[in-house]
Specification:
heterodimer; A: 191 residues; mainly alpha; 2 domains; two-stranded antiparallel ribbon; B: 589 residues; two-stranded antiparallel sheet; 17 helices; globular
Chain lengths: 191, 589
Amino acid sequence: MNRDDLTVSVRLLLVSFLLLGLVYQGSLMAIGATVFPHQASGSPVTDNGTVVGSEQIGQEFGPDDPEYFWSRPSSTDYDAMTSGSANLGPTNLALSDRVRATLENISRYETPDDEVPADLVAESGSAYDVHISPAAAEYQVPRVANQTGISEDRLYGMIDEATAEPWLGVYGHERVNVLELNRMVHDELED
Amino acid sequence: MANPHPLLEYAVFFGLAAVLIYVVGEYLAWIYRDEAHSTHTLPRHFEWLERLDGIFGRIEGFIYRVAGITPTREMNWKQFAAAVVLFNAVIWVWLYVVLFFQDGLPMNYVGVDGQSWDLAFHTASSFTSNTNQQHYGGESLSVFTHTFAIGITMFLTPATGLGLMPAFARAFNNEENPLLGNFYVNVVKGTVRFLLPISAFIAVLLISQGAVQTILSGQMTAETLTMGIQNIRVGPHAGIEAIKMFGTNGGGINAANASTAFENPTPFSNLVLTLAMPVGTFAGIYAWGAWVGKRTHGIVLVAAFFLIFAALAGVGIAGETGANPAMDVESNGLTVDQSVGNMESKEVRFGPTGSAIWGLSTTSTTNGGVNSMHNSWTSLGTFSLLFAFAINNVSNGVGTGLLNILMFVIVTAFIGALMIGRRPQYLGKKLEWQEIRYVFLVILWLPIIVLIPQAHAVTSSLGTEAIANPGFRGFSEILYEFFSASANNGSGLEGLADDTPYYNIVNGLQVLLARYVPIVAQLAIAGYLAEKKISPEGIGSLDTESPAFLVLLIGIVVIVGALTFLPALVFGPIGEFFSGADVFLNGGV
């Protein structure tokens, strides 16, 4: 072993703490805080000064909350201190059982159609996907209208407002932010 | 506006990738022009790069002084290999110490524990070797660990890979001169000129899209409508994510990796991060052509592996835009509309196509980051992922990718020359037994370190107890895990309960053997070739810039990969594909 090589390696690592640790991450934090303060701080959603969620992180809206639009199933109940799906494979009967149970929950309320959009019964990879497809949102309109008394037209309008488009229409999918949508439903009920 | 057609997304991605490979490839070729002993000239619209020399040079000069590097010191292959191994050993020790003791170190905002001895062994080995296979959830590391251990390793290990490329170019540009350059200079230049500025640019884009970035806090707290308090993990996500994707690292700051929004918030961020993977690796392959004075040859090499990558991505998309058989069920009159494709373990904003292109990008490089959970992919999609592993992750890693594909190129030149009755040579250097034996060692290394442990794991309860899904999928889970370790990739069919001493030790050894045995062998090859005379190519030499060479190269890569691993693939995704739906509908596997 060459002693010079060892010295150089250790000193190079020490420079890296400074340049690639502190300077790199610190200046990104500074740029974020000055140019994109909302995004860099986690895109908080606030209500009268209280943080009520993050625009990026889904919350649990499910069978216990028929008055809200439901989010996707989650094996971690939307715990955002951890992440990851149940990793069930495409020939695993446990996945079929879980899908049947979700369909059963959906069937307890008004359904506009016998075919449920896939994302409403499929778990997300992160386990806290904040989005559902426009089809999955529209599928839930009859139930939410019935439970809240808000007109279907008004709900369709809210879905439109909470919908984001694919990048330039050419990459990624349309999606509805469930948290944003349900905050609108919530605000409408409060008024 | 409706969702784009999968073919449109496919065209957008591969079109942009091709353009970026050219631009970043020329840039990379410029960075190491001197270190590669290359005399290539810059294309006219890249001449402005010369003006950057002064700025970068000053930063590098500062680092040389502080680190005690003598840039004029030249190394032969043995000294070069010793420097690589020693530098990486120092990184390994630092990682191990931080991982083991992180509970006692500062910036542990959410109170994580230190890792066990075997998990820390696996994690340190995995990150030092640029594999980033994780047997823990990213959330169980502290902000300190991510910023000052994992984060800097994510720069230094691709820089190690980058540093090998100009040394290998010397093998062909040197005339009877065994010196391959200075490893540390290559590492510093690769970091300062390539990894750092491009990662910083990507990170700012990510923040603009909604990625979080802080080193002063570990969580935010929200008062929700329906679930009480929701705590959300935050940290230096944007900074880590950028270098994680551009440096073929892949180890997520969150367990669910880039499927989580703080790592990958929008379709645009998803496009940028997906592009970052192949652009980093293919740029090196493109630069090879410039370094050896044959840009057309570089383009032929890029084209061969790019075609394989694009073909596998097509198979992946075909699989994931199809239905998931386990979701083809009925309850109280309701069924599932799977016209969009297989949505299980995928995010709505990416959709099946954006997830499939990512999946094949992460396995056609040694990245290993994921934006969907591969264990929920269809059998056809899973087959495309495992096939990419079988040919050593197509374009492999940043830097090491060029060296690994050159092993196939040298075999092609060797076989091609024998087919036309010429003495085998490549780029004017004769190929003889002392190099060729190492070339074959590198090519056979992957099957050796994957299949022998695989045979043990599937027949031992130590291996099979960890399986999450029954049947063929369980076999695939172990195969994928060993492939992932042995190709320095790092993704997984997650769900496999792999944080056991058995998997930590086996995978930990695999990642180290997979990284350093080929590197040392390749430096030896470079050393032998550098000492040879350059013999001019005659009219009868094998033309390495022709379509015929391209086809022969693809054929050799696919046949070597497919034949070696076909039996294993039959027990995994192929078996699942052919029996899947039928067996399944009759009561399950």
